[in-house]
Amino acid sequence: MAQSSNFSIQAPSAVVMIRPHHFTVNDETAADNRFQVAERDASDLSPLAYAEITRAAALLQEEGVAVHLFEDEGSDTPDSVFPNNWFSTHPGGYVAIYPMRALSRRRERRSDVIQMLKRCYRVQVVIDYSGLEPDGLFLEGTGAMVLDHIHRVAYAVRSERTNPVVLQRFCSQFSFEPMLFSAKDPRGADIYHTNVLMCVATDFAMIGLDMITNSVRRREIVNRLERTGRRVIGLTNAQIENFAGNVIELQGENGRILALSTTALLSLTPEQIDIIGESAKLLPLSVPTVERAGGSVRCTIAGVHLPPRN
């Protein structure tokens, strides 16, 4: 089906990705990330994850997405492949830096990434929330929040990684309406990050509705999404487990694309694929090793919503 080539502030045309040299599954984050796969011997995972990110970045570049690819050669940042948690960028020249719950994840913050953004894009203000960490207040970026940049709504699942006070502060400073809700997996565990549960694209939204515990709040979220003119694609619990919610819309050279993992694509129904295909080209990326750490394609991509200098 034909995809739209119209520009959308929801779909960034540039991204930041981190290529890991010492990837492993992070034991420190396993307590509340049920998407992780425990590893007895993860010594062979690093070259596989490195190759997956290398190939994913190349495929995005082939579609016309500008990829700022950074190397992580450190051995004490096992989740560095997921940069979307520690910073986000916003139209108008704003950058946010976030407070992270795990000590190992705080080491992921990199001044060279921020300096690149300032060098290549028009950055007006950098707001750093990381000073809230000693107070036990966390908001893990666009993992904790799924942002509707067009209609200024921040969808967020309650968890130990999403503090309502910090969420409200972010929304006040960045002019978003907070939509906070509770969601649990079939085993009764809290969903740790909102971006494994849902994606907001320009013309559609994908969301695991059955995991939202309050039926009234569930209806409010659907209504809020539908009021923006989006088609709401409900995802089953099994599809969420296969990372179908952990996807991101990007702007390619020939129109919008939906970057998702091959795992996620295989879980979608033909009808869901057709709905997405009316608005965006589906671009499957194979990241099975990275997914063992509890995140998928969306987690590996930090969108750049800043105006370029050139």
From TrEMBL:
Pfam families (alphabetical): DDAH_eukar
UniProt feature coiled coil, ranges: none
Superkingdom, natural source: Bacteria
Listed name of the protein: Amidinotransferase
Upper classification of the organism: Bacteria, Pseudomonadati, Pseudomonadota, Alphaproteobacteria, Hyphomicrobiales
